[in-house]
Specification:
The protein is of the alpha/beta class. It has four helices and five strands. The longest helix is centred in the last third of the chain and has 18 residues.
Length: 107
């Protein structure tokens, strides 16, 4: 499963318990508070039997937004390549990721 921020996993908690996926979380969920919400996501994943993936809260929210706003393609390409490598190596049957409204599943 790929999500942008901590907290998004709560919307699919039962699915987490059933699928027990490996989860990528792009940011630490710190928002404007500069306080990471990643520890609570870690507890939720552990309780559901899911595991953190290789990209897990790597960026603060502000840092990732800055990457996007400045069009920093070096960081973006590296992040996409690492995600693609993870997907290929994992040979997953299903990838779930967040979108603006709800979740989208891509078999």
């Amino acid at each position: 499963m790929i999500i942008a921020h901590p907290g998004h996993e709560l919307r699919v908690y039962h699915w987490l318990e059933t699928a027990r996926p490996e989860v990528l979380v792009l940011t630490d969920g710190s928002g404007r508070t500069n306080q990471s919400r990643l520890p609570s996501t870690t507890r939720v994943l552990q309780n559901a039997g899911a595991t953190p993936g290789p990209i897990y809260g790597r960026f603060t929210d502000a840092a990732l937004y800055q990457v996007m706003l400045t069009g920093n393609t070096d960081v973006t390409v590296k992040l996409l390549q690492e995600t693609a490598d993870w997907l290929v190596a994992g040979q997953f049957d299903l990838v779930a990721g967040g979108r603006a409204r709800g979740l989208q599943y891509v078999p």
